[in-house]
Structure formats: C-alpha cells, structure tokens
Design goal:
Nucleotidyltransferase, domain 5; 5-stranded mixed beta sheet; alpha/beta; globular; 10 strands; 2 domains; single chain
C-alpha cells in the first residue's frame, strides 16, 4: 500500500458515557461527533445500565451524523475501527456489536482499538494545531479511570512505568467536588473555581508512594476530614472559601503528577512529554506542563481539547495506523472491560 492511498476510517467510541463516531481520511479528521449523556448528572456518577441504554439510542444517529458531516457515503469506507476496551462492559458491547454488524454488511475490515492507546496516539492526528512527538516519548494518561506514565517506544510498543494503586486522578477531582457539594461531573468545576483562588491557601497531604506509581485515596480522605472539621467550626466555610479550596486541591494534585513526571524524566532521560485523557483538559495541568518546558527544557505535547475527552477521532487514528499494518480482527471478537495497554 502506498502512502498516497486514500483510506477512509469510520471510528466508534463507546467505552463509558459518551457515544462518539468519527470519519478520518488517512490521518485527518473529517468529522468527530460526540453525544454526551446528561442522565448521569442526577446520580452523581455514571450508571452503567443507563449508559448502555443511551448508547443504543445514540449510536445510529451519531454515526449517520458523522458520515453526513464528512460528506462520505458508507460504501466509500475502507474499514471500521471501534473501542474494544477498557471500559464499561455494557457500553463497550453496544459499540462492538454495531461495528461488527456494519463491517459485515459492508464487507470491509474490522479493527479493534485499545482506548488507552488511542488517548496517547491522538497526538498523531494531522491538525494545524496538533504537533506530534517523535519516538520515544513519555505519555501521561490521566482520566476518570486511569492514571499512568507510559514509555512510548513506537506506536504499538508501549510500557507502563507507573500507574495509580487506587483512585485515578479524574476520580480524585470528581470525589473532591462531591465533598464540596458540587454537581457531577465536578472536575471541570474545580478547575473553573481554582482559577479564581489561591493555590496555597490550604495544605493537603501528598501520599508517599515509591517509584512512579500514584495514590490518590489518601488525599481524598484528607480533603474529606479537612472539610468536615472546618464546616463544624463554620457552616459557611465551603461557600466562603470555595475558590481557595478548589485551587489548593488542584495545586496538590498537579504537584503529585509533576513530581512523578520529573522522576520519570530523570530515570529515562527522555524529555518529550505528551498528555492524554479527559483530565488533560484541565487548565492547571496544561499550564504546569508549559512552565516545565521553560524550567526543565522539556518538550511537551498537549492535545486539542476535543481530543482530550473520550472521542472517536482518537480511535480513528489508531484504526488508520493499524490499517496500514494490515492488523485486522475477525467477527468472533468481543469487548474486554479490563484491557491492558499492550494487549491490543
């Protein structure tokens, strides 16, 4: 296959509570449609059964919209890429089943994609505002379900150097927000209020974890006890100090992440850092990485906001890279909720 061959990939992402479909022409995104599920807000978190039902309702119109926006007929598609895992089993099954059926009906190849690989390889989508790292580089994948430092040797040769031992960083943000009485999802709200507060107003415990692994459960407990203690003394404490509390929580989490990244750079002598995952949309983390470029001479790569949260374009770029390799899968495949980054 020559490099100038035109390849159209329809990509489907349904790992959690966003139904997304995208069409890529080689490495360029022609459309990237995301249907978010608002129903989970009243429950304070994602309800798996409700998520899978919503995916069933959304997937056909989302795929139709992606094809329409890309101005592509389904008969022009070269292959269909889909998220096999990790994620919620019911949600994954909706996307997997749809992808298999459509690929079978169109008689075109089917390509499985690892969701966490996709967050990392989203940097290789061709976009005028999306610069691409060169191999090898370090990837910090931060989301509601994952916190990992990954050594990326090639597009499909990755090694996890460290990961969370308990809560993911996105979970730490959301649970902290819940403690403060903020609605779900709370992470973006903490970021919003943090920009107005003093990051050193309050001090929280940074867990001591050896090596490049993370732990956020102790920090979450520390925040809970702190808030309970202060509210007992002053019932209006949260309302009167919300900006400073959020800024202090965010500062502490960023300090933990950056401390581990510094250690990873020291151990590997690799100074190219790429971030991915929903929490990489956090303004404080993006700012800290940019500051690290100047302070420690790192080269940092921060994806466009639309490629940070769960989206199908990132699934599509992996699909394209696998298509070029001829790495197709068959109709017997099924979803895997726990799917290691090197299992794909």
């Amino acid at each position: 296959m020559t490099d100038n061959t035109t390849i159209y990939i329809l990509a489907i992402e349904s790992s959690c509570d966003d139904t997304s479909a995208a069409v890529l022409c080689n490495k360029k995104t022609l459309s990237n449609v995301v249907a978010s599920q608002k129903i989970h807000e009243e429950y304070g978190g994602v309800v798996p059964e409700l998520a899978s039902r919503a995916h069933q309702q959304n997937i056909v119109p989302v795929v139709h919209q992606a094809l329409t926006m890309a101005n592509i007929d389904k008969k022009q598609l070269s292959a269909i890429a889909f998220t096999r895992g990790p994620g919620l089993m019911g949600s994954l099954l909706v996307g997997t089943s749809f992808a298999k059926s459509l690929a079978l009906g169109l008689d075109i190849p089917l390509i499985e994609v690892n969701h966490m690989q996709a967050h990392i390889l989203a940097h290789f989508i061709e976009d005028e505002n999306n610069s691409q790292p060169t191999f090898p580089f370090l990837a910090l994948t931060i989301s509601g379900g994952h916190t990992q430092i990954v050594l990326v040797k090639t597009a499909f040769d990755m090694e996890i150097l460290g990961q969370t031992l308990d809560d993911a960083v996105g979970e730490a943000f959301d649970k902290s927000a819940k403690i403060l009485g903020l609605p779900y999802p709370g992470g973006p709200l903490i970021d919003k209020y943090a920009q107005l507060g003093n990051p050193k107003a309050f001090q929280f415990t940074k867990p001591r974890v050896d090596g490049l692994n993370f732990s956020f459960s102790g920090l979450k407990t520390n925040i809970l006890y702190f808030i309970q203690r202060e509210v007992k003394k002053n019932p209006d404490f949260i309302m009167q100090n919300l900006n400073d509390i959020c800024a202090s929580i965010q500062y502490t989490i960023i300090e933990i992440l950056m401390g581990k990244l510094k250690l990873a750079v020291k151990q590997t002598n690799i100074k190219q850092i790429a971030i991915g995952g929903g929490v990489s949309a956090n303004s404080g983390i993006r700012k800290a990485l940019k500051e690290a470029e100047e302070k420690w001479k790192w080269k940092t790569y921060v994806p466009k906001l639309e490629y940070c949260t769960d989206n199908a374009a990132m699934i599509g770029i992996v699909g394209y890279l696998k298509y070029k390799k001829g790495a197709f899968t068959n109709q017997s495949i099924t979803a895997i909720p726990r799917y290691g980054i090197m299992e794909a």
